[in-house]
Amino acid sequence: MTTGSSLDIQVKRVHDAAEPDDGSRVLVDRLWPRGISKDRAALDAWEKQLAPSTELRQWYGHDPAKFDAFAERYRRELDDADRAADLDRLRGLARSDRLTLLTATKDLPHGHVRVLADVLRSG
């Protein structure tokens, strides 16, 4: 799911096979995904600090009816000054090559990576 803007960012499940055109592969989940070895994940980085807080993740519970409220709360978490350098680092990767944000989430349209990708593109 690649979209426009000057940043080339796509979102994929970490369970999907790595592709040659993935560019930098960055896992953005707080917890390591079950059933995935580090070799199979083929990561360039694991930015777990950019995942939603445990409290927010538990409140959301991947309920699509709560997605809009979840996205708003997650954006506020990403606005924290402590995360600015991490977001800038990912933007830098996306400026130099494709950035593939990885997650174990099955419902990508209602997952945090969609929100994170939007924040990166708008920043």
Q: Your description of this structure?
A:
The protein has helices spanning 38-41, 54-60, 67-78, 84-96, 112-122, and strands at 9-13, 24-27, 45-46, 99-103. The protein is an alpha/beta fold. A four-stranded parallel β-sheet has the order 1-4-2-3. Helix 3 (67-78) crosses helix 5 (112-122). The longest helix has 13 residues, at 84-96. It starts with 8 loop residues before the first strand and ends with a helix. The model has no long low-confidence stretch (mean pLDDT 93).
Give the number of helices.
5
Separation of the first and last Cα atoms: 19 Å
SSE order, one letter for each helix or strand: EEHEHHHEH
Structural class: alpha/beta
What composes the largest sheet? 4 strands, parallel
Strand order of the largest sheet: 1-4-2-3
- How would the global form be characterised? globular
Q: Work out the helicity level.
A: 25-40%
Number of strands: 4
Gyration radius, in Å = 13 Å
State which percent range the strand residues make up: 5-15%
Low-pLDDT runs: none
> Mean pLDDT score, rounded?
93
